[in-house]
Amino acid sequence: MTLDPVHFDGIARLARRIDHGADERDRRAFAETVWAEFLDPLAHEGRTIVEPVDEQSRRLVDCEDVALRDRPFPTEHGLDAGTINPTTFKNGLVIDIAQAAMSATPSDLDLHRSRTTVMTVHSNDETMTVDETWGKFDEGYSRSRAVKIPPLPRFAEGVVHALALYLAESTHARDHADDVDDLLVLDGPLYPRGLLRWADQHPDLADFLLENPQPKTVLENYVRLVETFVDRGRPLVGFVKNPATRVITRTLKSRRDADVSAPWADDSALFTRLLERGEYVPDVEGQRWERDTSCLTYTNWFRSRGGVDRPLSIDGDALGVDRELDPEGYEVTFFVVYDPRDDLCYRIEAPYAFTRDPDTRERLTMQLLQDVAIAHGPPTIVEKADELARIGRAEKRSLRDTLEIQFDTSRDRTYDDHRWDAEYR
């Protein structure tokens, strides 16, 4: 049933009760102030949170021109992992399954066939046991492992999901690091952001992060991955499709020495204002903003040491993981690209070990800009990895049904499960 027109109008009239504060022109002007006065560097309580790697600047490149340039990296590999999402059973088990896959251009069928599959299992019954050894399947092309998660009073679903996802992804990346000839693009952040965020969420998760070996093992995989690629002289980057970091906006709001009331929900909203180009043109109700969609716009690279990026910075201890390179080489650096055709921002991350070199930094920038221009969105190599790793809706349902038979139990279902399952049958 849809809304009747009278109901729609009644809801729409609620907007008249809201004074949304400063108008759009003022917000754009304030974004310019932040750019000019607070980011070179952005500091708080004596610590540098964000600072430019090179000269702070905003740049643009014509979409068609950059698409036709020679590619700085002739070949690319992409990596992604997909899960069935956490599933709770009536016998108390909470399970998630992740599979990771790597894509290549030009295509490599043997590489595309390979998978790393991880099942994470949680139960408050301490007598539950799991054989955690690695096993092989699909004629040796793929391998799998089950992992037991220690009992948790809360957040079991989030923990089994994060550990399955990041363990599968990082293991697969390390196993196939030697297959990468020029550049590896991770679908998502450079480090396991979801895992590193636990320390800020709740004391139970912070304690689990520090006291149990699984999170440290996962993070160590990413640290070793960076070291491997530095040793081989092959860069890797993380392409974040939906950047939701709040390091800049949160720091601005917390600074008492500056009269700043950041109106943006996250850093992406700020960068959208800074990178969007256009002009106000006459309209029937006065003026409206008309966006220029001919060029991709982007920032310089920044070093990030705040929020979840802090553990891998020179200010962090990497959760106790030994680092073989100088600590600053692991630091997250990023630049933001804005695609006006879809009004979307993307964040590209790379270790400082690569971006400290001006030539490598420029080559990475141009490669990712070209990828976005050609694909009209995330790089094709990332979408290809996503297709390989994705577990479809029907496959998720079948896997859950199989697990019910295996465990001689059934899922702990809610009405929403019943409703949505019925709609997609």
Structure description:
By secondary structure, the chain is of the alpha+beta class. The chain is built from 16 helices and 17 strands. The strands form two sheets. It has a 15-stranded mixed sheet that branches. The protein has a two-stranded antiparallel sheet with strand order 12-13. The radius of gyration is 23 Å and the shape is globular. The two termini are about 20 Å apart. About 40% of the residues are buried.
Strand content: 15-25%
Number of strands: 17
User: What is the helix content?
Assistant: 25-40%
How many helical elements?
A: 16
Q: Describe the biggest sheet?
A: 15 strands, mixed
> Structural class of the helix and strand makeup?
alpha+beta
What value does the average pLDDT take?
92
Low-confidence stretches: none
Distance between the termini: 20 Å
Shape: globular
Over all CA atoms, what is the radius of gyration? 23 Å
Features:
single chain, 425 residues, alpha+beta, 15-stranded mixed β-sheet, two-stranded antiparallel ribbon, 16 helices, 17 strands, globular
Write the layout of secondary structure elements.
Layout: H1 5-12, H2 24-37, E1 42-44, E2 47-52, E3 58-62, H3 63-67, E4 76-83, E5 87-88, E6 94-105, H4 109-113, E7 116-122, E8 135-137, E9 142-149, H5 156-175, E10 184-187, H6 193-196, H7 198-201, H8 203-211, H9 213-232, E11 236-240, H10 247-254, H11 267-275, E12 278-283, E13 286-291, E14 295-299, E15 302-304, E16 332-339, E17 344-351, H12 352-355, H13 358-375, H14 380-389, H15 393-407, H16 415-423
Parallel strand pairs: 4-10, 7-9, 10-11
Antiparallel strand pairs: 1-2, 2-15, 3-14, 4-6, 5-6, 6-7, 8-9, 11-17, 12-13, 14-16, 15-16, 16-17
